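User: Could you walk me through two proteins back to back? I'd like the raw sequence and the structure tokens for each, with a short line separating them so I can tell where one ends and the next begins.

Assistant: Of course. Protein one, sequence then structure:
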Amino acid sequence: MSSTEYRPDIDCLRAFAVSSVIAFHYDISPFRSGYVGVDVFFVISGFLITRIIRAETRAGTFSIAAFYRRRARRILPAAFAMLCATLLAACVVLLPQQTLSAAQQALSVLAFSSNILFWSQQGYFDAAAITKPLLHTWSLGVEEQYYFIFPALAPAIFARRRSLMLASLVAICVASFLLCVVQTRIQPAAAFYLLPARAWQLALGALLAVEIVPPLRSQRLRIGAATLGWIALGASVNVFSPRTPYPGVAALLPCLGTAAVIWAQPTPNRLVLAATRPMIAVGLWSYSLYLWHWPVVSFATAIWGPPSSAMDKLGLLAACTALALASFYLVEQPARRAEWPVTARRLAASGAAALLIAVITIWSAGFPGRFSPQQQALAGFINYDHSGVYEEGTCFLSPGQTFEALQPSCLARGPGSNILLWGDSHAAHLVDGLKRAMSQATLRRATMAQCVPYLERGQSAACGEFNRRLPELLREHAPDIVILSGNWTRSVMAPAARADLFATIAAATAAGSRVVVIGPSPQFDRPLPHLLIASSRFGVDSDGHVPTMFFAVDDFLRDLLKSVPQTDYVSLLDLLCPDKHCVLQTADGAPLAWDDGHFTAQGSELAATRIVAASPALSSAGTISSIGEQGAAQSR
């Protein structure tokens, strides 16, 4: 097989990969796990790069300098153009903190380490992915790090006897895969973003390039293997759910499917080539499509919110395609055709421009002067310090903590009625307000991030242990009232979840407590400060940004619990979103929430005041503070 032999099937694989990723990010059915397209790209890269290096090593013409020149021509011109455009757009569209973050992201891209930056930023309350316009460059960081390491090792590996060469590559592949499986369970962010747990995908492509499996001679067998590969790829974009640990073992499906198609290499006839010509064209444009698709949806979401209608998604696709074609024909292709000194000078200029814009942006703290004082005050809530308000680490545990980390003071009995608040972050964000609204009662707190107040399938081990220990605590402390609050989603509608929720309520009532279940809080399709500023800057309608799913869950819980003994249901959506027009700000101008659904201290006070007033059990348990209600303003 020639190192320069054109493979139309690989361009079809590229088209599949980029289409899957774009469809997933643009929420286009049926690609609910379209993120597997990145795995397909990794296998392809491992195959192509190894094939080239091995052929040149055999011919005695391999040069690391020449290799890097080719990679620079292929990757950097379009990447630097996208980088400059994204930074300039960020300075116009994004908030100062986000603009500053985009500049920091750009520096990591220039240092070929964006995957490391995004890995380091993972956390329960970390900024939403959609607010990071260069997030997609993490996969380029993985490949670029591979390009730095593998070419240096390849000549030594290929110089060995074939058996030792294959053993070396297999050892790398197996070791990386085992690390990936283990790390996906204990350090999922590291497994997703970092090279060590992704190297096996590149190594799998490398093994195909050195023909660890003999080529198929029969055209029928080739067609059969390719068909099985495409079936596996088609399944991989639909079978995984948000709860599927990824990459881990699950990544075998798209990677082995890609490997099967590459290995099969069926000889296409004219009819097949004609039919796949559009797919091949998309494959040729795939790199530029990948580069531009994420900034387009990130900036569009910052202005108008996530795409919801078919027309929204069509508009995003049109914008992405137009930018990608301009990038391909005006940047990618000319950079490949030009003499290297010309391309090198242009690369240096565009890289320096991106660096200069990033440095100036960081120096200016994201150009806050673009915004009015009121907008700057709202933007300040993006970096809201919730830790003290939510009692993080003491009464509100992180997913990595255990029940033993719950401080005794959180559960201590006090004067007046004793009330236990049990739930996840959507319980913790009520603490500050409930303390104020029920000043004569004692609020005891037992909350954990990502842990709804019942045993749910797929919960972490720490959450499961936390929820198993709470009924024992109820029997021991016998609070007068137990408040259950959580990030209720459609999962609560499942029969098993309903039974588990009933079991939690039964445990509380058996201990002599009355139960108050707080329904879902308003959760917006983007951080609320973003929405408020977009409304004032771009005239975006501030209504209609709470997904209808939450209203459906609210109705379901109301009907489910209306006849449960000793149990009250309080609808937060009724209290804060009458007729689906939500309270967005309090009278002092503070947003109700600092992200897409977690209350600020002011929002907590407003919500808690209304909750207590709406619940006979809570209103009789303590004196209602009127401060929060008097300060409410239904700004829409």
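----
Protein two, same layout:
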Amino acid sequence: MSVRHWPEACYLIAGRDELESLPRKAHPPQSEGALRLGNKAWNLWCMAQAGLRVPPALVLGTPYAHRPASDWDEALFSVGLPELERITGRRLGDARRPLLVSVRSGAPVSMPGMMETVLDVGLCDETVPGMLRLTGNPRLVWDSYRRLVAGYGEVVAGIDPGVFEAALAELAQGQEEQTLAFDALRTLTRRYLECYREQAGEPFPQSVRVQLRESVRAVFASWNAPKAVDYRRHQGIDGALGTAVTIQQMVFGNADRRSGAGVGFTRDPTDGTPRPWVDFLFEAQGEDVVSGRRSAVGHERLAARLPQVWAELGEGAARLERLFADMQDFEFTVEEGTLFWLQARAGKRTLRAAARIALDLLAEGVIDARTAWERTRDLALEELATVRLATAEGEAPQRLGSGIPASPGIAGGELALDAERVAARVAQGAKVILVRQDAETADVAALRQAEGLLTRRGARTSHAAVVARQMGKVCVVGCETLTLLPEQRAVRFGERVVAEGETITLDGNEGSVYAGLVRTQTVPDAALQAQIMALRARFAGEGQDA
């Protein structure tokens, strides 16, 4: 089909060579890039043009968020999708060479985890044989199919994810997902399809066009989800902006032992140390890391098993900082030993990290002095400090457990198991620690009121942990000795049971959890304060140049 009438709000993300054959309307407008494509897709386009390996994608821009579905439906299926199929050499729903895509949100302003994503769209009973022939990997195909049913069921059909988790737990009998053979995953997929029918009152859609259309509709609608509205209200983000939707060719972190998914920061977002800060899961997809429902590990295993990928990741992280002139939060997938970049954005960081990163980027020549000053001029010097435990000699606070430190500082308060309890006790003047099974962004409103967050599962790069750092809340995730006892309104650390309402202390610097309230001390960073004061002295006169 001719692309002479390329829609105004529809764009392709691909390498320079692929884009040369398309009309200019298919290229994002430089002057309005992030506003029309959303921050995520605009940055992807910049990364692709800079030569980073980005899977090709189709973007339905933010103007479609305020238009009837018939407008974007025509742009998607009549023009955009055929061109994406041409670039990838695959077709959505094709029985021989099926195209599988992810459907992702992306507002002009970064809103980590506040909107929805659906992965593996395009799998159905008819396309499974084609994927089996293409990949020769039945485990990958059945794992991806069951993930699609669960993800689509949650995001589009509104099914409680616990339904699918219960089916997985029943079949796995304590085994890790990665150890399940393809026949077990095939059985699990069929059970998921039954769960979908039972919960939704209709079969899972076997039309891949219906899958794609309804996924896009749900992602656009997630702009108005309660957690997204709450986040925008407290961050001062204009609700009229809307979100774009990115439809991107899937790459598979669940392909084999040389595959996986990760999230990273180009520098440590807790204190600004200039080193990559990466969480990674082998044989996983991206939502496993960012959703907060699984615990991830640091980069050590990735560097040991795939050193060439780790080296490429480090080089790419440095390029991202030069490209965007700031510390970046990025997502990536490794498929059979090949690295693909899926996202980059300015990373959320603590106030202390913000100061150090700005000064370091200035010293490295990435930004100029005025930019560094503008990024730090509103920071209070007393905020450039670390809060630590202050136990006297001979004191030994009772340590209940430990997890992964995700946001630094010390926080103490009453243990609370849900948002309602947090709101009620805070209204009565109490300080509260929210304790949850998973580090999920659905808890963002409660987290805003609480002093800190403790979870049994999750990664330090999961969306909830990212938001906690942005809010300055102490956060410890992945406390594996923690067991929630909701019927008893209590939790258990090993053998010790702690009832809701009892006090605990979180050490977000070391990842420890203590019984009761523990004394703290504030340790100023005198050297960092001095550097900020010296920078401010350069701009003491209004309008003075660097």
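Residues 351-384+525-538 form one domain.

Let me know if you want the two compared in more detail.
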